[in-house]
């Protein structure tokens, strides 16, 4: 090896530098090789930024050995290493770009075909005897009611979610023929009418404890406003005339919840959500009980700004109020399919 000329030494140094750099790119460090040439050792300890700069410049740059400039050609191994590094960097950046492209605000406007069930219960003391009742009453038929919900994305994991739901129903039952029992007659034309109005609005902070490309799990904490107005009046001739139900309450309380979101493809979204509220947590006067809610929707997005959705929603209110005359309770369930459009910005 001592008999090699200057050209042979230069070729050996160029080959050794190339193989050392390829090994460094694969392992993340600079390989330390034994070399007899001091010029090789000097080139090996060049600053990394200077080596990288010369690699980027390609065939137009080289290493200065003995005052002569030699052009360094990139080997196929080094090209492969650089291609792999570029591909990995692009894959690493892809999720961040997708998250940045998510809409900041989404609004869903639709309607729910509500089927309600209502139970009125109570107990009181009359002449020293305890009297109690538990009666279901039907407001008759299903009815479409508006429903709105929306989402404001603060960051990849944080969002604000709001919901609004309203149900307003009244019914009147009239007696066509007179009815007599135990010497008492209820004349024809007697009637019983009732009205129920129910509103719920919530605003929750949602944090994604799991934030994947296709699956998202969020925990929720926020506030919910609920208002219930139940009113019933009867005119039964000489037997009874007057209002026998007049219950009104509203209040705000903390609400907790959870959310599961699946995005199987670019156009499809599946969202599941559940929330719970206890009246003791907030300001609902003398009422004690809870409010529960669960819903599921499937959404198809035609483009990033417009989509349609369909799903199912369920509410349940179960409260009791204690007074001087006894206890009166109200249990209501609202459930049914829903559908609407989605707008994103």
Task: Give structural notes.
By secondary structure, the chain is an alpha+beta fold. The chain is built from 4 helices and 15 strands. Strands 3-5-6-9-10-11-12-13-14-15 form a 10-stranded antiparallel beta barrel. Strands 1-2 form a two-stranded antiparallel sheet. It folds into 2 domains: 6-96, no CATH class; 102-344, Lipocalin (Beta Barrel), CATH 2.40.128.90. Helix 1 (6-27) packs parallel to helix 2 (38-44). It has helices at residues 6-27, 38-44, 48-57, 76-100, and strands at residues 62-65, 68-71, 105-126, 129-137, 143-153, 158-174, 179-181, 184-186, 191-211, 215-235, 241-262, 268-278, 287-303, 306-323, 326-344.
| Structural class assignment | alpha+beta
Mean pLDDT: 75
- Our estimate of the beta-strand percent is over 45%
Number of helices: 4
CATH class of the largest domain: Mainly Beta
Percent of residues in helical segments?
10-25%
CATH domain topology of the largest domain: Lipocalin
Largest sheet, order of strands side by side? Answer: 3-5-6-9-10-11-12-13-14-15
